[in-house]
Amino acid sequence: MNVTIVLFAAVVVLATVQVLVRTLEIDAFGPMAWTEPAARFTLIVGTYMGAAVATRNREHISIRFLNDRLRRRWPSLGAALNIAVILITLAFLAVALYGTVQNVASGWHTSIGGLASVTAGHVYLGIGVGLTLMVLYELGWLWSALVNLSSALGSPNAPGNPEEGN
């Protein structure tokens, strides 16, 4: 079962319980104030895990018009552009991951309120796991893009190849 599905289901259950207990004033459950921060932190971590899934499946929003046109006319240039985009993404993720590691270390014992056993470091750790997965998936896509560039450069029949006479 996908972790992101479990996290999303937990957010739905926590938010529903919170609304029902507050709206219907059900005293049998006791104070349920903890459900609001639990739902919030679960949603934050779930967002980063979902972003990792989107990275794995190449489902992030992107404008592919230029790359698609380049690939048709000059496959090697399109493949090189794809590699450049992946490298920029990896640079961004590296900075984000570095900052997250710093926040995990500095916030490990920092209470964030609402949940006594959860600290800011715990939440940042969940974010860090999602970012690490994104880095790993992007590295896999980088390898694939390098293989594609290699085949585009080595293919004598590729459109736009100088030997073909284009």
From TrEMBL:
<dbReference type="InterPro" id="IPR007387">
    <property type="entry name" value="TRAP_DctQ"/>
</dbReference>
<dbReference type="InterPro" id="IPR055348">
    <property type="entry name" value="DctQ"/>
</dbReference>
<keyword id="KW-0472">Membrane</keyword>
<keyword id="KW-1133">Transmembrane helix</keyword>
<dbReference type="GO" id="GO:0022857">
    <property type="term" value="F:transmembrane transporter activity"/>
</dbReference>
<keyword id="KW-1003">Cell membrane</keyword>
<dbReference type="GO" id="GO:0015740">
    <property type="term" value="P:C4-dicarboxylate transport"/>
</dbReference>
<protein>
    <recommendedName>
        <fullName>Tripartite ATP-independent periplasmic transporters DctQ component domain-containing protein</fullName>
    </recommendedName>
</protein>
<feature type="transmembrane region" description="Helical">
    <location>
        <begin position="77"/>
        <end position="101"/>
    </location>
</feature>
<feature type="transmembrane region" description="Helical">
    <location>
        <begin position="39"/>
        <end position="56"/>
    </location>
</feature>
<dbReference type="Pfam" id="PF04290">
    <property type="entry name" value="DctQ"/>
</dbReference>
<keyword id="KW-0997">Cell inner membrane</keyword>
<feature type="transmembrane region" description="Helical">
    <location>
        <begin position="121"/>
        <end position="143"/>
    </location>
</feature>
<feature type="domain" description="Tripartite ATP-independent periplasmic transporters DctQ component">
    <location>
        <begin position="12"/>
        <end position="146"/>
    </location>
</feature>
<keyword id="KW-0813">Transport</keyword>
<dbReference type="GO" id="GO:0005886">
    <property type="term" value="C:plasma membrane"/>
</dbReference>
<keyword id="KW-0812">Transmembrane</keyword>
